[in-house]
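Async update (no meeting this week)

Hi team, since we skipped the sync, here's where things stand on the single-chain job. The sequence we agreed to prioritize is pasted below, unchanged from the tracker. I ran it this morning and attached the output directly underneath so nobody has to dig for it. Comments welcome in thread, and please keep replies under the output.
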Amino acid sequence: MALAGISAALQGMVGLAAALLFLGAVSLAYFSVRRRWAVGVAVSIAALIPAYILCQMAIYTPNSPSHDGPQAAFAYFGDLPVDVPIFALVAVAALEALAFVLGVRRRRSHIDASSVKEAVDSLPDGICVFEDSGKVVLRNTVAERVCWQASGVSLANGRRFSDTLRFIEEDTADESAGGAFVELADGTVWTVSRERIEYDGRELTVLTIADVTEERRKTEVLRRKQRCADLLTEQLEGYGRQIEELVAAREMLAAKVRLHDEVGANLLAIERYLTAGGTRGGTRADLARIRSALLDGLDFLAAEAHAPAADEIAVIVKTAEALGVAVHVDGELPSTSHERHILGCALHECLTNAIRHAHGKELFVTIEQRSSTLQATFTNDGIRPQGPIAEGGGLTSLRFLAEGAGGTMSISWKSGFSLTINLPVKEESHAI
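Output:
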């Protein structure tokens, strides 16, 4: 049966298939020319001609009044058996499929201008290369999007685009935030770098635009946390000064009270010595007692000048509660003032660590009496350290204080911050 004798439905299907193959051949020719692929151009031409003929055969009308010129030729093809155009359709489809496979393989194994453009467009950062005149040599989609949002025009002049970004950078320069940046209307933040290169005898400028939105957000969060930490540090320093003033005031008050009592007692003793025995005065024994009392008073003044406050630990615990940290003491505090002073300094340092670094809400102090050694361990419920703790400032002073008293100090971090102090003791402990 000839093609002209088949049904209109089947003839329409053949025409549709031929039209699709014709469009495929045109697309193949376009991409082959664009990629400068000679084989693809030849295959597309070889597929384009039979696809066009098949389209004309499908729309050929046998009863047309004129069969002159091209119509006569298509009339001839229309009288061919139906197997011939179907075979031609299959051959053209196979040819285009082969060209497609070869094109994919060539794309994977060859680098051309189109491949470079696609690779540059896939980058997350913007790139724009332009001449001194502003002519754009290379750009990607990210650079085009940034240019549109920054200036409201398409990226046609690289120098104008660079000047626009520089103007925005100067307006948003902030050294404390890490230098200049470009913040667009959509909330994204970009940094811009410029580099001069020489290529093929031409001076070019490479404009690189990096997206730092997430880094900028994290930087702002860290800055807010740093401000909070600085404020907390100021509060801790204020509480420390208050503690020092309170301790000094209590020491001065205790010294004044004792000095008053000693002076009063010595005055009474001197009066008894002068009035004892009538006109002869007191005995040598009375004089010796007065002398001993005066020496005791001097010893008291010397001892009070160096004695730490007995309530130092209680003041630190109260300060911790004011800062929102609960202090739990398990065990008995030492009886000697010097040992209590060392533990008070350790408690103050661990409280500072728990608030500033660990962000803890509870501070635990475990005190154990082992033979002639007192062991105090300080821990908290805060964030575990990420690595070994570098001693400095307060910790160094605390170690010097503990070792000066004949003790030791150790710090561990793997299972959470823990500070342990061992001190030699000679007296019994009592609960506070």
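Quick observations from my side:
The domain at 310-432 is CATH 3.30.565.10 (Heat Shock Protein 90).
The chain has four domains: 3-110, 117-211, 224-307, 310-432.
Reply here if anything looks off.
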